[in-house]
## 1
Amino acid sequence: MGREDSHYRPERVDGSASGGSGSGGATGRVSVPGANVPHRPAPGPIPVSPPVPPAGAAPPPPSPPPAAPRRRSRLVAALACVLVLALAVAGLAVFRPGPVAGWLGDDSSSGTAVAAPPEPTPPAVLAGPDGNAPLPTEAGIRAALDPLVRAAALGDRVHLSVADVSTGQALYGSGQDTPTVPASVTKLATGVAVLAARGPAYRIPTRAVAGPNPGEVVLVGGGDPTLAVDKDGFYPGAARLDDLAAQVRNALGGTAPTKVIVDSSLFTGPVFEPGWDSDIPTGGFGAAITALMTDGARKNPAEARRTAEQTNHAAERVPQPDLTAGRQFAKLLGLTGGAAQVTRGTAPAASGATGTAPGAELGTVESLPMIRLVDIMISDSDNVIAEAMARQVALAKGKPGSFAGGAAATGQVLGELGLPAGEISLADGSGLSRTNRISPSLLTDLITLAGNGSHPELAAIFGGLPVGGWSGTLDERYRAAATSAGAGVVRAKTGTLSGVNAIAGTVTTADGRLLTFAVLTDRTQGSLDETRAALDRITSALAGCGCR
């Protein structure tokens, strides 16, 4: 049976609700033909929307001197400036300096910081790493972890990699280069790939164009899985069909809408990945992946929003998301009866068409920026968003918008980033497929690259990572005495399928050193709780020792 990460609890630091817009309130944008809509300023905390340590803590320490190159010549290690700032900034990030404001819609060219409204001081969550802290030794980490890796609940395929974020130095490995079933940890690779391929500021458009006959409207899906029908959508801040319908009515002028045609041809191939367990399409964690959908294909988004925490984000999904969205749009245009029955088709070629000529654009709405979609994908472990993100990678690289295209493009982008693409083989972007394979060392390389400052756009993957004992899929973990050292200092993406358990992220040691780790097991034998406890003991051992 397929199984997705459970014990979900929404991030609370930036005030966002489950799946919320969070991070400064960036919203989906509305584009009216012929009008210039200014970008919205985006006040709030830093772009990756991490939990903010208490005010008055020390600022980030000076960067340490460069260290020896990592074991992989293709990955050049640099200082972990971005990640240290993302995890340790102490009440200093009350504005969005530099390129981040632009990513979230602030087109101000003055360079002046935009002050955020005062917020209550949050509780301490993450211990700030110390850039001058001593580096653990390989022998010290091996002594701490070797007994724990042999826990019976983990089964006989336990593959583990630990590295230092600042230097990129590998500190521990056990089957670290062995491709292993990653489950939902796959989303880290998907997030890095789409941020690299599309950029943090990219927004996915949903368009309406004039159909071949007067009054006909073609709704063209661009692949935005968060598109809402109206203000009661599942994802706060998402682009909305009612806004698009208003644009269409205005553009048509005196011509009454007569029919809606749905163009979801941007995505091709099967709507369910063949490697998914048989219960995924109906189990509430997956959906038919189409280029046009509303609310992640949820049948009742308002109810799903109310029950997300109790159901671990499972929700009933509609079987044909594109046609459902089309019918919702037809209703917003005032169509009833037979006229509200939509059909699939292809938008007429524009060829410079204007007004209401066939192919002329009647309206456009745009999704949240990519930086926010990735944040939601990771914090909520949202499989539908993940599959849409993988297809965005494919489209950016000129490949088909399909499962196969997304998988191939993700591997290509990771290779272009200097990561060992030979150690990743994907069938989907969410991790629901059991045919996916990723090595632990690729994951620690990836996390190091995202945090070392060489690619600041990749740091968005850290914003959604759950915190041990506090948020997301780690909310109820790290609360036992044996694992309490990891509470507040382990920040990681988890992955769960039947017989598969994984965790990858960052941890701050007792000496204040920031490490990255990945533990993948794909032949577990104990109960789910026993397996998770065994994984937590490994990461807690890193948190609780200097390992020297």
Note: Residues 478 and 484 are 5 Å apart (CA to CA).
## 2
Amino acid sequence: MIRNPWFLRLIVIAFIVTAVSVIWNTNAFLTDRFSETTRNRAEVRLALYTGHVLSELQRTSVVPLLLARDPALISSLNSGDFSVTSQRLITAQTEIGAASILLLDLSGRTVAATDRTRLGSSHASAAYFVDAQRSKDTVFTLSERVSGGFEFTYSRAVLSDNRVVGVIVVGAELAKFERVWSGITDAVAVVDSENRVILSTEPRWRGLTIGQALAVRSAPSALERAFQLTADWTYNTPDAYVRGEAVMRNEARIPFRGWKLISFTTYDSIREQVNAVLALEIMGFAVLLAMIFYFLSRRARLQSVVARRESAELRLLNARLQREIAEREKVQKDLAVAEQTLAQSSKLAALGEMSAAVSHELNQPLAAMKTYLAGARLLLQRKRAEEALSSFQRIDDLIERMGAITRQLKSYARKGGEAFEPVDVRSCVSSALSMMEPTLRTRAVRISRVLPRAAVMVMADRVRLEQVIINLLRNALDATKEVPEPQVEILLTSGEIATLAVRDNGHGIADLNNLFEPFYTTKKPGEGVGLGLAISSGIVKDLGGRLTARNAPGGGAVFEVKLPILSEKTQAAE
């Protein structure tokens, strides 16, 4: 319920501020949008104008080559008879539309011309005459007229028996574009490579640089300046001013001697479109403001209705809150029961996983011990006691390893483990191969290993790291049982990390997604429970590394153990 009249005034003021902000932002947005549209149209016109200028230059550049080979002109220069030469040039001018055509003899005197008033004039010092004699090709010359403006000419030497007998000069009709461009609202100028205006719809600009040309403007009166500020109420800053009017500047490159075509477009059309939309917005806000005053006038009549409605809503909300509180208490009780059930299930799952881990991890040393005992018995029967002692030593090492494995079982149920120490991965590989020696003797498997000469030190638990390597080697041996020529490659590399890769040429991995899941196995019943890779992955994670698997391109599987290298700084910190 609205009772404070000051609050109503704040609403009206906020509405007015919002309306002004919307109108201001609309002006900025539409100005940008319509300016971009106008700029695109100007760029299209520039591309069209550039094509016209370039086409005229290319069309005129061919004329000197054709006239320089005209037998009639060559004959007239050799004979000195120019009675009909001017008429021939006038006919050629009518056909090609050139600005002017001059025929000069060796002295630079005009002997024939489309403008007969120029007959007899000397052009011996003109650049187009001198350059044409020095070059065998057509020469383009840009020269400034005494009367103002520029003259664009193509000249070429006329040869007779490989000697120069005269020069043909053809003027390009580029001034016609100034007359065409002046019929539109844009100011257009063509500048050369020195940024000098050579063509323009503004006659005062010719011969000046574009910066000097834009600086030429009359000083406006105070009334004109005030009107200009009102007319240029726009979000964008004008690119330049032409005749005291803000304009948008666009440029296009003419692929000829570094020329550029520049156009200046006024903002009149942009302002007309923007102002039309702003007028509609202002009208709409005025209508909305009138409606606001109308609805506020009905405030007193609606106060009682609003009060009754709010009271009913509060009662409904109170009842809803009470129901939600009761439901929340019931959910909390159910959650406590679920947590107890989940804890009990987790304990049972942990016990199952630990028992399976014990069975899996102790099978390997027990099998090795059985093999060593059989070998020792055979050696004792053959009276080779010293060699039998080495087998007993290995059995003793296996017993110590089994004790270490039982001590490590608690690490499967929680993160971390025994205290880590610097370990050389090369020695772990050698110990694992030594542990696997009884199994390897029963199989015709080619084992190749590539180890660096320098030590590859990592911070790890030696027993657990050897356990991972043994699991990977056993998987590789199992994968190559049905391969005619089984091979297992062990590659150890070191850089920023230590990477131990175990590759086999077996059947590969069918399901990479579930490979490291507990109890997932592709072996036959009785050959494995599917915990080796899951346990190995957990051990590598505890060591701060990562265990990955992929299929090799040539067949088989590749398992990679990546561990952080133990640097000198890390050793000092440890």
Note: The mean pLDDT is 79.
